[in-house]
Design a protein that fits this description.
Number of strands of chain A: 3
Strand content of chain A: 25-35%
Distance between the termini of chain A: 5 Å
Shape of chain A: elongated
Radius of gyration of chain A: 16 Å
Largest sheet of chain B: 9 strands, mixed
Largest sheet of chain A: 3 strands, antiparallel
Radius of gyration of chain B: 15 Å
Strand order of the largest sheet of chain B: 2-1-3-4-11-10-9-6-7
Helix content of chain A: 25-40%
Oligomer: heterodimer
Strand content of chain B: 25-35%
Shape of chain B: globular
Number of strands of chain B: 11
Number of helices of chain A: 2
C-alpha cells in the first residue's frame, strides 16, 4: 500500500519561496501567474494488507506528530493499493 | 546550579553553550546525547543549542523534537525546570509544543548573520533580570528560518502576559511583531533566535549575551 501525503502552508502564511517563483515566472513572460505556493509531497510505502480504516488513522497520526506542523501547515493524503 | 546541554546530530553551538554555562555557573554542564543520554537528576537548566539538527530535514527542528530525549525534556519542563533554546533550539522547542508558534523561512529568503540590536522587553524574567536598566543589547543572529509566526490570538496573549522577552530593533527576518524571543506560560522556558552564547566576552566580540546566563544563575 502507499500513502501520498500533500503538505502546504496554510492560507495567510507568508510563502517567500512561492513569491520568488511567481516573480521569476512573471519575469520569464508568464504574466498570467498571479501567485505560487510551494508545498511538499511525501510518499510512504506501507505494508500490504493493512486495514484501510486503521491505515487512515495511523497516517493521520503521522501527519499530526511529525510530517506537518499544523501551526503553519495543512495536509491531506490518499492511500492507494500501490 | 546544575545544567545540561542536549546534543543532536547537526548541533553546532553545543560547545559554545558548554563554555558559556561553565563560565557563568562555575560548573561544567552535562553534555547529553539526544539518543541514549539522560538529563541528570537535579538539573536546573537544560539548554538546547543552535545548529542544523538532522540537516533541517522536513522542517527545522522537526526530527529533533521527536527524538528520544524529548520525553525527558517534557518531564523536566513539567517539573518547572528551566529550558533555554537558542536558534535551532528555539525551532525545536516550538516543534515540541513547549513554546507556541513556529519559525519559518526568513521573509528575505536570505540567511542573515550579523550582530543584532535587541530590545529587552522585560527585565522581570528569569532570563533577563541582569539586563535591568538596559533597554537594548547587541547579540549575534545567524539563521535562515527565524521568521516567528503565530496566530493573532496567540501573539496578543504573548504580549499581554509579558511573554515576549526580546524584540528586534530593525526586523531582520519578517518575524511577527518583531519578536526575537518568547517565554512559556510559567516563564521557565525561553526560546530565542539570537545567540547569547556567542557574546560572552571572548574572542567573538561583545559580551551582551552573558546577561542571559547571569540572570539564570540569579533565578535558580
Amino acid at each position: 500500500m502507499k500513502a501520498t501525503v500533500h503538505i502546504g502552508l496554510k492560507p495567510g502564511v507568508l510563502d517567500p519561496q512561492g513569491k520568488a517563483v511567481a516573480d521569476t515566472l512573471g519575469r520569464m513572460g508568464y504574466g498570467e501567474v498571479e501567485a505560487a505556493r510551494i508545498g511538499k509531497v511525501i510518499e510512504l510505502d506501507l505494508e500490504d494488507g493493512l486495514n484501510a480504516e486503521q491505515a487512515d488513522a495511523r497516517v493521520k497520526e503521522m501527519c499530526e506528530k511529525l510530517l506537518a506542523n499544523t501551526v503553519i501547515e495543512s495536509y491531506r493524503f490518499e492511500i492507494t493499493a500501490s | 546550579m546544575k545544567t545540561a546541554v542536549i546534543v543532536f546530530p547537526g548541533s553546532n553551538c553545543d560547545r559554545d553553550a558548554q563554555v558559556s554555562l561553565a563560565q557563568a555557573t562555575g560548573t561544567e554542564p552535562a553534555m547529553v546525547w539526544h539518543k541514549d543520554g539522560t538529563i541528570p537528576d537535579g538539573t536546573d537548566l537544560v539548554m538546547i543549542p543552535g545548529g542544523f539538527s538532522y540537516g533541517d530535514y522536513l522542517r527545522c527542528g522537526a526530527m529533533a523534537a521527536n527524538s528520544p530525549v524529548i520525553a525527558q525534556l517534557h518531564a523536566h519542563a513539567a517539573r518547572g525546570g528551566y529550558v533555554l533554546g537558542v536558534c535551532n533550539g528555539f525551532q525545536i522547542l516550538a516543534e515540541t509544543g513547549l513554546l507556541p508558534g513556529a519559525l519559518v523561512r526568513n521573509a528575505s529568503l536570505n540567511f542573515v548573520c550579523k550582530p543584532q540590536v535587541l530590545k529587552v522587553e522585560s527585565a522581570n524574567t528569569a532570563f533577563t533580570s541582569a539586563y535591568a536598566g538596559q533597554d537594548e543589547v547587541t547579540i549575534p543572529i545567524a539563521h535562515h528560518d527565524g521568521n516567528y509566526m503565530a496566530d493573532e490570538t496567540t501573539l496578543d496573549t504573548l504580549e499581554g502576559d509579558g511573554r515576549v522577552a526580546f524584540r528586534y530593533a530593525g526586523n531582520p527576518n519578517g518575524s511577527a511583531r518583531d519578536i526575537a524571543g518568547v517565554l512559556s506560560e510559567n516563564g521557565r522556558v525561553l526560546g530565542m533566535m539570537p545567540h547569547p552564547e556567542r557574546a560572552i566576552g571572548g574572542h567573538e566580540g561583545g559580551s551582551d549575551g552573558l546577561g542571559v546566563f547571569e540572570s539564570l544563575v540569579g533565578a535558580v
